[in-house]
Write a structure and sequence with these properties.
With 217 residues, the protein is mainly α. The chain is built from 5 helices and no strands. Keywords: Coiled coil.
């Protein structure tokens, strides 16, 4: 702005000097005016372009972050639905068929086999959903700032741990039920609850850092 005012001041001084003393300099004044107009248009264009770029960057990042948190919430919501609608019926069926046939090796093995197959189907669906979430995280890392990137890496770590423990817990469940190994079941359960608590704390930090990053665009 100071540059533009200086140029305008120079133009006015040149104009009055030429008007009162040398009318022959009118051509030079016209050229100065054209130059000032051109400089002003360049500055206006520059700031207009920067504003547009910032707007696009803000919208791109905010949309990507919103999509990430939507997928993160879906992980939890769909997981709870699957637990109620798919896993619990499978578990109930296994308990009924296995416990009512204790001593009948063939029926015991059949109950264990059907339970394992059902668990495998549920885990495949969970794995597909987890990979979708992980891919979205990888895409975010291309546009995230350094602080957000660090928190996303931590979220990745906790998500992977939670998925691995959940998968192992479901694989071990039939054996733990048969052997009545409540100690191992509770240990895995407590580990998952601890991870869930840490993940929620990390999510709050991530939200705060994302807000800060977007405000600085």
């Amino acid at each position: 702005m100071e540059i533009i005012l200086s140029l305008i001041g120079g133009f006015l001084m040149g104009y009055f000097t030429s008007y009162f003393n040398e009318k022959g300099k009118n051509k030079a004044i016209i050229e100065d005016t054209s130059q000032i107009t051109e400089e002003k248009e360049k500055v206006t264009s520059k700031y207009g372009l920067e504003t547009t770029k910032r707007k696009i960057q803000y919208e791109t990042k905010s949309n990507a972050y919103m999509k990430y948190f939507t997928l993160l919430d879906e992980q939890s919501q769909i997981g709870n639905i699957e637990a109620q609608q798919e896993f619990l019926p499978v578990l109930t069926k296994f308990n009924t068929e296995y416990l009512s046939n204790i001593g009948d090796i063939e029926k015991e093995l059949k109950a264990v086999s059907e339970f394992s197959n059902s668990i495998q189907t549920i885990m495949i669906k969970s794995q597909e959903r987890y990979f979708k979430f992980k891919n979205e995280t990888n895409a975010l890392k291309l546009i995230a700032g350094n602080k957000v990137l660090t928190l996303l890496d931590e979220m990745d770590h906790f998500s992977q741990l939670s998925f691995d423990i959940s998968a192992q817990m479901m694989k071990d469940l039939a054996k733990q039920i048969i052997e009545k190994d409540m100690s191992s079941m509770n240990e895995q359960k407590n580990h998952l609850e601890n991870l869930a608590s840490q993940t929620n704390e990390l999510k709050e930090k991530l939200v705060s850092e994302i807000r800060q990053e977007l405000s600085e665009i």
